[in-house]
Amino acid sequence: MHILITGGAGFIGSHLAEHHLAKGDSVTAVDDLSTGSLEVFSGFDRSRLFFETADILTWQGLESAVAKADRIYHMAAVVGMFRVLKEPIEVTRVNVLGTERLLESVSKRDHLPELVVTSSSSVYGHTASEELIEGIDLVYAPEKGGLTAYALSKLTNEVQAMAYRQIHSLPVSIPRLFNAVGPRQSGNYGFVLPRFIKQALSGLPLTVYGDGTQTRSFCDVRDTVAALDMLVGEPESWGIPVNVGNPREITILDLARMVIERSGSNSSIEFIPFEQGYGSQFWQITQRRPSVELLQRLTPFQHVWTLEKTIDDLITRNRVNVVPDGRLL
Ligand code: UDP
Is 107 in the pocket of ligand 1 (CB under 6 A)? Predict the structure, then answer.
């Protein structure tokens, strides 16, 4: 198969590339390198990997790359709390218009490639529920600012993908990704685990935002990409949002404690008010656990990585060497 990955030099994009290269596929990755980096490909066999630097909105090679692809993963997006808060216009421009341009280009093909339009657990907005199930009513509080623009851009991506499925029969899957973590993730845009790992290994205080009682469910990126591969290959999944994540839930304070304990670090924990961590505009969900029932009904997917295993792997990879730009090895 030939695979096209937009945002291919990003964290999840690079793991998709690695996953498909290992299966013997060839990969074209395109990325504007705004948050992605070519360093993610170090150690990759480049003989079946082709890379282009381009903005998804202006990329001249889009039509021909789409024509060659058997499958497309659309990962190009403005992500990360710090970047989302700093660049709100880019969030809509890239996430909504970029997705529209890609969908339109795919819909013109006679032979339609399989397509993954990635959504996010952030679409659940302020929904207060112990378990986030796909069909649940969504609650937003736009006056609280912050992630609302990002959440709505991802919800719009779902609506766009569903529209193209309805009108052009696109074989499109719409995964809602829950907190992927693992090698090559950068802490520079706010993501918590690479920040904690780097802080613990450098003996710096771990910066817990708020009181640390907020929960997240972290999924190793290698499990995430395996699930995406299975999901899009399953026609029954086309056109409907499906949670992709690990239902194990942990408070951010316990995550900090776990990283300190497993790395043997002397670091302390520092509580930082949300407003100080992110600036004035702010909201976030306090609890986030996916139901993965639908994913398991549609695919044979099983998690391989536990959170402990992921953290130990990151500690081993980065004990000697943390990349200066904040990205993990
Ligand atoms: N967080 C934290 N310290 C940090 C960075 C993030 O306590 O240095 C918290 C953040 O406020 C959130 C959780 O960790 O409650 C997960 O943040 P991340 O940005 O990784 O993902 P998201 O908020 O999108 O779930």
Answer: no
Q: Give the integer Cα–Cα distance in Å for 147 and 282.
A: 7
Interaxial angle between packed helices 192-202 and 252-263, expressed in degrees from 0 to 180 and rounded to the nearest 10 = 40
Distance CA 25, CA 150 (A): 32
Q: Give the active site residue among 150, 164, 189, 209.
A: 150
Known catalytic residue at 164? no
Of 326, 208, 319, the residue nearest 256 (C-alpha): 208
The residue written with tokens 């070519």 in the block is 38
Give all domains of the chain, ordered by start, each with its CATH number: 2-181+221-244 (3.40.50.720)
Residues in CB range of 285: below 8 A, 6 or more apart: 122, 124, 125, 126, 127, 214
Q: Which residue CA neighbors atom 19 of ligand 1 most closely?
A: 191
| pTM for this prediction | 0.96
Q: What pLDDT is stored for residue 322 in this prediction?
A: 58
Residue nearest to atom 6 of ligand 1 (CA): 192
Cβ atoms of residues 282 and 274 within 8 Å:
yes
Whole-angstrom Cα distance, residue 100 to residue 296?
Answer: 29
pLDDT tens digit sequence for 242-261: 999 999 999 999 999 999 99
Integer Cα distance of 27 and 72 in angstroms: 10
Q: What pLDDT does 289 receive?
A: 95
Both tokens assigned to 142: 């736009």
For the residues 18-22, what does the mean pLDDT come to?
97
Ligand 1 contact via 180 beta carbon (within 6 Å) = no
Say how far apart CA 310 and CA 194 lie, in whole Å. Answer: 11
| Euclidean distance between the first and the last CA atom of the chain, given in angstroms as a whole number | 28
